[in-house]
Amino acid sequence: IQDVDLTTLTHSQDFMIIGFSGVWKGLSPQEAVEIVKQKIQTSLPEAADQLKTTAKEKNNEDPIGVLIIQL
Questions:
Q1: What is the pLDDT of residues 21-58, one digit of tens each?
Q2: Residue 48: CB partners within 8 Å, gap ≥ 6?
Q3: Which of 41, 31, 32, 42 is nearest to 66 (CA)?
Q4: H or E element that contains 34
Q5: Strand pairing of 66-70 and 15-19?
Q6: Is 18 left (phi over 0), alpha (psi -120 to 50) or beta?
Q7: Quick one: CA torsion of 61, 1, 32, 60, rounded to 10 degrees?
Q8: What is the pTM of this model?
Q9: Which residues pair with 17 in a beta bridge?
Q10: How far is Cα 7 from Cα 65, in angstroms, rounded to an integer?
Q11: Cβ distance 22 to 54 under 8 Å?
């Protein structure tokens, strides 16, 4: 495990993103949040696909996998 973060979830969070290192080497956390916010209301799978596609465009060397949990 490269990065572990312990966070208390509150009612103000709408979703949580868990991603392989390739996601975070390609995107900042804020960029990832913005991508998901744009798509999550219409389709959670589309949000995940867009996040993976964008991360792959910016970083194609590391594994890219993503899990979005809608809270």
A1: 889 888 999 999 999 999 888 899 999 999 999 999 98
A2: 66, 67, 68
A3: 32
A4: helix 29-39
A5: antiparallel
A6: beta
A7: 0
A8: 0.81
A9: 68
A10: 21
A11: no
